[in-house]
Amino acid sequence: MKLLRVGPVGQEKPALLHSDGTYRDVSGIVADIAGDALLPAQIDTLRAADADSLPVLPADSRIGACVGAVGKFICIGLNYADHAAESGMEVPKEPVIFMKATSAIVGPNDTVEIPKGSEKTDWEVELGVVIGKPAKYVSEAEALDHVAGYCVINDVSERAFQLERGGQWVKGKSADTFGPTGPWLVTPDEAGDPANLGMWLEVNGKRFQDGSTKTMVFGIAELISHLSQFMSLQSGDVISTGTPPGVGFGQRPELYLKAGDEMRLGIEGLGEQHQKVVQA
């Protein structure tokens, strides 16, 4: 099942993607694709709904972030060995964890703003994991039972803010619009093997990232288990699991986004994003 949220900013309606390609309104079943609506019982209720009888939403509706009211936006750094190498950093012995402000979250096709004072705004296609059943001190064997679904995330990053400003990575990761998420939240039964999904990103039609989740250092189950030792994971929390090589920071010479650029990115089975870049 593919769930999404459609409508103007702040007025998104929960929906599912019908097999005929239409958006079907599920607001009569759940208030939003958020929080308790992501618990297994609610997901089962949505799956059992007669999609043919649900109201059709306009095909030209804006698509919002596929999860609403996100409590925590957790990111994993240097989780692809080849990306660590291009960044000149060692492969970590255990997951590198940092946070991204939830105010960075936008729809998959919304405009991305280069922050004021930025000269090094970069791109990162990443597999997003959305928590369904809350997790605390879970084992790797149990970890995937806590996943509501998977999605595409562009972990937009300002490298100077991240690495040269004497602070934690969150400073370079949290600008408004730096978290395009979606288009769909794809439930595990339809998402395929999260450890073997092709992923790519293009800027102005040139492909810079062309990788696979199979080269992750730490897999999804290990990440969820590891994180749950340090914090409880709640329904609707999002984990962005790292990026393959090909980011602007790794180009020689380095290459960064500028106003007028266009990004297109996607993950196998999880849909595509398209963002235009503007100056804030």
Defining traits:
15% helix, 19 strands
Secondary structure blueprint with pairings:
Elements: E1 2-6, E2 13-17, E3 23-25, H1 40-48, E4 56-57, E5 73-77, H2 81-86, E6 96-99, E7 105-106, E8 112-114, E9 121-122, E10 125-131, H3 140-143, E11 147-154, E12 157-158, H4 159-163, H5 170-173, E13 179-180, E14 185-186, H6 188-191, E15 198-203, E16 206-212, H7 220-228, E17 238-240, E18 262-267, E19 271-279
Parallel strand pairs: 5-17, 7-13, 8-19
Antiparallel strand pairs: 1-2, 1-14, 2-3, 3-4, 5-6, 9-12, 10-11, 10-17, 15-16, 15-18, 18-19
Number of strands: 19
Main sheet attributes: strand count, strand direction, barrel closure: 5 strands, antiparallel
Mean pLDDT: 96
Query: How much helix is in the residues?
Result: 10-25%
Q: Quickly give the structural class.
A: alpha+beta
Secondary structure tally, helices: 7
What fraction strand? 25-35%
Q: What is the gyration radius calculated from CA atoms?
A: 18 Å
- pLDDT < 50 stretches: none
Order of helices and strands: EEEHEEHEEEEEHEEHHEEHEEHEEE
Report how far the terminal alpha carbons are from each other: 36 Å
Shape: globular
Question: Would you write up a description of this structure?
Answer:
There is one protein chain. The protein is of the alpha+beta class. Helices cover 15% and strands 30% of the residues. It has seven helices and 19 strands. The strands form five sheets. It has a five-stranded antiparallel beta sheet. It has a five-stranded mixed beta sheet with strand order 6-5-17-10-11, with helices on one face. The chain has a five-stranded mixed beta sheet with strand order 8-19-18-15-16, with no helix packed on it. Strand 2 (13-17) and strand 3 (23-25) form a beta hairpin. The mean pLDDT is 96.
